[in-house]
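A protein record pairs a chain with a discrete description of its three-dimensional fold. The shape at a given residue is found from the number at the same position. Here is what such a record looks like in full:
>
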Amino acid sequence: MWLLGLPWALALLVTAAPPDPASIFADLSAAELRAVRTFLMGRPELGLSPSQGGPLAKNSLFLVELLPPQKRRALRFLEHGGARPPREARAVVFFGAQAEPNVTELAVGPLPHPSSYRPLPFKGGRAVPFSARPMTRLEYELLHGALVAALAPLEPLLLEATGFGFQNCSERCLTFSDIAPRGLGPGERRTWLVIQRFVEGFFLHPAGLEVLLDHRDPEPRRWAVQRLWYNGRYFGSVRELARSHARGELALARLPEPPARQLFSSYEPRGGFPSGTPTDVHGAKVCEPQGRRYRLRGNRLEYGGWSLAFRLRSSAGLQLFDLRFGGERVAYELSVQEAIAFYGGHSPAAMQTKYMDAGWAMGASSYELARGVDCPETATFLDAHHLLDADGPVRFPNALCVFELPTGVPLRRHFDSDFQGGFHFYAGLEGRALVLRTTSTVYNYDYIWDFLLYPNGVLEAKVHATGYIHATFYTPEGRRYGSRVHSHLLGNIHTHLVHYKVDLDVAGSGNSFETMDIRFENISNPWSAGARVVQPRLHREPRRREREAALPLGRAPPRDRSAPGLTPPLTCRRYHLAVTRRHENEPSSSSIYSQNDPWDPPVTFESFIRDNETIEEQDLVAWVTVGFLHVPHAEDIPNTATPGNAVGFFLRPFNFFSEDPSVASRAAVIVRPLDPPACSRLHVQRWTPASPGPCVHPEPFTYNGT
């Protein structure tokens, strides 16, 4: 048995080797991405145009990524010597140049030389409306142009209030952040835009103006501003707001001139610590004095008893496959599904914000990791290639890293006292974990995604939230929805929720699910007549059907699981944990289309459990939700810090092994006295070298960032 415990709160070959079986799960190489695009662009019936430039009303290729093989084919290959599954790509095509525009997904293969494609229907055969498509660079360029033109009458207001503008600006320009969902119902595409001064950390520099722009029409000339909000007041048109300013009837919010140095939204050091301890010298570092203790072959990672395959999906991020401990599979898949943040506020942009980051391609937001900051200097760094809203694959250098981490606490230890001032023995095993890490910078927020492998068979999935808070312009009424974190800045209350898929295969694919809780009993004391004993006992509850195995957020969960009790608009986040039968047509709990059509999305998690199938001795998937409430405060300036802003869950063996499997580690230390009780002579047992040796990484810091 394996326990799922929830706390509250690439294509780079490292060693030359024959293709590993894990390569069936490897991300598409740059050559494969290019081959898929070339093949599809050459199909006349698709009528595809380049992604960049041209009109919105065109057919274009938006996304290409690996289409993982069907599980039964993969297991037949991995376990029974069956044929290698055909390698295929998932391609997302925007069909905008037709009478009824839509988004269609295609399976393209076989790779590396594709020759055919077929539609990939969603469960129920639903089509994706064109209005649900993710935003593209082209649409943003057109949106910016439409906004600049529409707000031209407000240039005097903006210059007077902020010192920045849109018209013919150079270094003193205004910019915007867009809010989603884009409307109030299916088919809409009208977006609230938060106007900001374009300085370092512009997310913290709202100008007090928010604009609702309707951009549903494929012809940008027909886009229009529908509403505006300025400093707490609504206006029906640009002209109305400009007239109010010209007549002197507007309460103007004049912003101070931003300083040339030490801007509050920058990382530039300022101030000092009263202790006087040095911060201008290097601190503690991670080192590998005898070399790496893990093995990386293509996308296969091995460490201690662990082995797994991994990939970085452009759409939703890290995905692990074929997770084994001691050679035995414990999970077929473990993957990030969605990250959402929903807000409250007084301004229209704040009250509308419900971000669903798969819709912003959070997997392709995996920018370069800095050696020595984002990952230790000793880490192995891996590149990723994405083909997303581009006319060819784009290389993201150092997008992932792998490193062994000293946890700072022993994995286990014991001091066995003789209670006479001496001891019988001391034994301890150093705490180490292997970390697989990437990040997603989805505009203002940075998510740090970790999977940690421990030598005792425990796996931890963890995400840290950092980056800039999503903030709006301060008004007195806004204090009900957050904190005033700077003079003109409101940090809006919001909840982060993250969803994972865990396809457990414990001793095979036929699994069942039960929860354990603690009940208290009051019984007669069997060894003292007339006395009572109050003690805890275990209460086991088999969950035989999917509805029984969906544990709602609004209800206290069993004691070995917990999560916050707030409900976002996507149904998969209604549950701490939901266990369903695995189906090939239920690969994900969300999609890249949910952000712009959350009212009627093509993937609805509730349909996974609506049929209430039996889950006894079946191939099961656990869908896990973790998260936390964030009430921003002044200490979130310039960025939210990672301590206290991390959530995750553990996979832990529970009566699966006969003992702690970390006993196989040779990193233990045992000390026994040779002359008890004096303990003046000791026998120290180690199975590693007595001294770790030098611990210095000689290479200087470098960073590219492109």
Notes: The first strand starts at residue 2 and ends at 5. The first helix runs from residue 30 to 41.
